[in-house]
Structure formats: C-alpha cells, structure tokens
Amino acid sequence: MTGPTPKPLRPPLLRVAGLRKSFGTNLVLDDLDLDVAEHSCVVLIGASGSGKSTLLRAVDLLEEVDDGVIELRGVDLADPWVDANAARARMGMVFQSYNLFGHMSVLANVTLAPRLVHGRTKEEAEAAAVAMLERVGLGDKITAYPDQLSGGQQQRAAIARALVNGPELLLLDEVTSALDPELVGEVLDLLAELRAEGTTMLVATHEMGFARQAADLVCFLDGGRVLESGPPEQVLGAPEQPRTREFLARLHA
Amino acid sequence: MSGQWTPSQRALARAAYRRGRRRRSFLVALASTVVVAVLAFVVLVGSPGWDRAREAFFDPVEFVAVLPAVAQGLWLNLRVWVVAGVIAVVGGLALAVARTTTAPALFPLRAVVTIYIDVFRGVPVLLVLLLVGFGLPALRLPWLPITATFLGTLAIVLTYTAYLAEIFRAGIESVHPSQVAAARALGLTRGQTTRRVVVPQAVRAVTPALLNMIVALQKDSGLISILGAVDAIRAAEIAVSGSYNFTAYVVAGFLFLLISVPLTRLVDAYNARRGGRGVGAAMVGAIR
Ligand SMILES: Nc1ncnc2c1ncn2[C@@H]1O[C@H](COP(=O)(O)OP(=O)(O)OP(=O)(O)O)[C@@H](O)[C@H]1O
Ligand SMILES: [Mg+2]
C-alpha cells in the first residue's frame, strides 16, 4: 500500500473498521476501514455510486449498517444500545441538496437544534446563530426563507446550521456539486477557513482542487473499500493503483 | 434612470392594441352571455308547467314568510359545521400522526386507527348517520346525550375525521425523506422531527385539499336533518308540509349558496395565490 504514515499519538477521533453495508443484493461498502484524526481533513473521492454518501450517512447513523465498527472517541456508535440521537448531535452533517427546512426562516433553521437538542435558550441560540450566519456571509439573510436564497447561500446556511452546534466531526457530502461554478468558490473558501481553524472534517467531493488544497488525507473509494489513501500530492499526483489513475484520468478528460 | 422612462412609439402602439383586444373580448363575452340568458329564459318561461312551477317554488310571499324559520335552522348548520370542522381537523391530524409512530407499545393504537379509518372512509356518511342516530340511543347509555343534533354531529365528525386523517397522511408522506434525514442529523428525536419538521410541512402541502373538505362539510351539515334536528333543511321541510308549497326548499338552497359560494371563492383565491409552487414555497406565503 502507501508509504509509512506517522503513527498517531492518540486514537483517531473517528475509526471505521470492517464496515459493511448493502442495499438488498447491492453490496455498497465491503469491509471498509478509515481513520479520521482529530483536527484533520479527510477527503473521500471515487466514482459516482462508489458509496461516498452511504459512508457518510452510515457514520452519522442515518443508515443501519450490516457489520463493522464506527467509533467516535472510542465508543462504537454502530451498537444499537448507543443513544443514536445523542451521537448525531455531536456530529454535523451537510447534505448535497442542502435540506434546509423550507417552512422555517434561515434563523429558525439554525436555532432549531440548539434549542431543541442542546437546551439553549432562545436568546443564546439566536445570538450564536446570528454570529454564525454573519460568519458565513449571510448576516443580511437571517429572516429570509430558503427558497429566497441562491444555491450557494442555501448551502452556506446549511453549513451554519451544522456548525452552530460545535460538532466534533463535520460530515460534508459533495457540498458544491449542486452549485454554479461561480458559487463553488465561496463555499470552498469557507471550508478552507474551517480547516485552518482545526475543524475535523470528513468530506466527499469531486473538487480535486479542494482536495489538493485542504486535505490531510485523500481516500479513493472503489469496490466498497478504500482502495488507496495518502496525502493529496501522492494519491492525486502519483497514484499507485491503476483504478485510481483511471478515475483521475476520466475526471480530467 | 429607469424612472425617466417615456414609452416608445412601439410600446404605445402595443398597449393600444392590447386595450383594443381586451375591449373586443369583453364585448364578445357580453353578447354570448345575453344570448344564452335569453334562450334559457325563453325555454323556462315557455315550458308548459312554468306558471304552476313558479307558484310552487318561487312564491315571493311564501319566500318572505318562511325565511326566518329556515335562517334559524341554518344557524344550527353553521354551529354544527364549526364544531364538527374543528374536531375533525384536530382529530384527523392526531390520527395521521398516530399512524406514523413506530414504538412497539403503540402497536394497538396504530391498529385501531387503521381499522377506524378504513371503516369510516368506506361507509357512506348517510349510513353512519343512521347507525349512530338510531343505534347509539338503543344502547341506553345514561351519560350519552341522545339529541338529534348531538348524534348527527357525532356521525359527521366520525366520518370527516377519517377523511381528514387520510388527507393529512398523504401530506406527511409527501414530505421528502431528506427533510427527516436533516432533522435526525441535527440530533432531533423522531417525535421532535415529526412535530417540528414533518407535520408543519405536511399541513401546508394539503391545505387546498383540507379547505375543500371543510367546504364540503358545510353542506353535509344538512344531513343531520335526517335525524330530526331542526336545521335549515328540516325547517324547510316543516314549512312545506304545512303549506304544500315548495318555496321553503328554494329558500334553504339559497341560504346554503349564500354561505358556500363565497367560501368556495375564498378557498379558490387562496389556492390560486399559492399557485403551483412547491411545499416549501407555499409555506412562505402562508407565514407572511
Ligand atoms: N437508500 C438506498 N436504497 C438502495 N440503494 C441505495 C440507497 N442509497 C444508495 N444506494 C446505492 O448505493 C450505491 C452507492 O450510493 P452512494 O450514494 O453512496 O454513492 P456516491 O459515491 O455518493 O455517488 P455520487 O458521487 O453520485 O454521489 C449506489 O449503487 C446506490 O444505488
Ligand atoms: Mg453521493
């Protein structure tokens, strides 16, 4: 496989081992292993249908897996006796299609979980939400409804909604793929900023530019497992696996 | 800059042309309406039985004489409508939500709700009315009011609760699963997700259907007359049997129209304002 990676001093924030998930007869994740160290940015790449979204959803306990370990700080979340709601509350997920709540203003979207899940008062939640929305550049859209926002603005609102809870792990599923090229930049800039602040991120993306710039580790998913992983210069610049080379060649074609 | 706009010759010509077309459309519509109205009048008045029919159904003296009694009856219809409507909406929503629960302990609840909805949706209202109206009193339950109004309202509530539960269920199913995923990802429990994310969007999605049912309920409130409750229809019946003149029925119909036509227009206007916009967009209009 890849060259020697420095042994982490502490156990990783997220450890996925032997993960298996099938939909009917379609085996999507097959004995998949993946570690995400604290304060690192791990980028998942792979062909459409290779299971990137499924992996992220499994980690966020939105899919029940067939087998394997999903450890967050040493606690296996795949165990059915673990409080899944509490586990989800510790992670933030941003979906490819934003999934903002259409019947709520941007502010209500962002304050919902702090108030309902994290026990914040209305005032606390609103203050934190306004600060977060200003941070993502939506200070003037607080009272707007999702359908009044551009795609990039909706995506940034969705990121604010996930970030406001101070997640230990941020899961991002192709957060730019539904955006016009001009809007991709504004979202990627925001992610690069979060990365610089040390937010732990697991990101599925087709944006190789982002992977090259922000990733500590790039994982190429193929055949239900991580076929190749390593620093971006290595996986994207000099891939060892023929499948990885094929994938990258097709992407650049 | 744009405030300084003086329409070009071309724009003025177009506006004039459009005005001309509008005037023409109006005149065509007016002419065809007059022709149809005259034809209808000629056919009606020229029919052999017209004189007798006019006396039996459109007697102005009788109209004025029975109006107070029938209007008094209509007041009962309106009260039944409001009470039954409120209970059926609240009950229907509760049943629809009950069906979405997953807790094993609630299985009996889900089963009962499903059977209830199947039964009351599948039986004609009239039959429910007769069974409740004549069946329940036979049980001689001491705590059960057995007035015709109470039993009639109960029958309507039972039926409409089932109808509305089905409408709400369709609404709940129309909420995209990604909305649920987003809520769960934030750590919301199943119940919180249902209450805060699914139900509000479901209700907005089915508001047009809901309003149509409410209008239908207003008319069906007249069914309680079958049990002898003195509503507008029963009041008219009483008047007719006293005078052998059917004008009272026309009065009752007239009064029902007086309520239901504006109501229907209102509902149509509301639905049109929402337009074909999606669930999310529709909610925006409703909130502001
Ligand atoms: N809910 C589901 N039911 C059945 N099959 C599913 C479901 N979700 C995903 N799959 C299947 O799992 C496989 C992996 O899908 P997934 O969405 O994880 O791919 P992906 O890598 O995210 O692709 P993309 O880059 O196009 O987003 C696909 O073959 C897909 O058809
Ligand atoms: Mg995907």
Automatic annotation (TrEMBL), chain A:
Membrane topology: Peripheral membrane protein
InterPro entries: AAA+_ATPase, ABC_ATPase_HisP-typ, ABC_transporter-like_ATP-bd, ABC_transporter-like_CS, MetN_ABC_transporter-like, P-loop_NTPase
Family: Belongs to the ABC transporter superfamily.
Broad class of the protein's primary localization: membrane
GO molecular function terms noted in the UniProt entry: ATP binding
Membrane as UniProt keyword: yes
Pfam families tied to this protein: ABC_tran
Ranges for domain ABC transporter: 14-248
Protein localization: Cell membrane
Domain of life the protein comes from: Bacteria
Alphabetical keyword list: Amino-acid transport, ATP-binding, Cell membrane, Membrane, Nucleotide-binding, Transport
Name this protein carries in UniProt: Amino acid ABC transporter ATP-binding protein
From TrEMBL, chain B:
InterPro entries the UniProt entry points to: AA_ABC_transptr_permease_3TM, ArtM/GltK/GlnP/TcyL/YhdX-like, MetI-like, MetI-like_sf
Keywords: Amino-acid transport, Cell membrane, Membrane, Transmembrane, Transmembrane helix, Transport
Transmembrane spans: 26-45, 78-98, 119-137, 143-165, 246-267
Residue ranges annotated for the ABC transmembrane type-1 domain, each copy included: 74-267
Pfam family, one: BPD_transp_1
Gene3D superfamilies linked to this entry: MetI-like
Protein's membrane topology: Multi-pass membrane protein
Entry keyword Transmembrane: yes
Cellular compartment(s): Cell membrane
Family according to the record: Belongs to the binding-protein-dependent transport system permease family. HisMQ subfamily.
Name recorded for this polypeptide: ABC transporter permease subunit
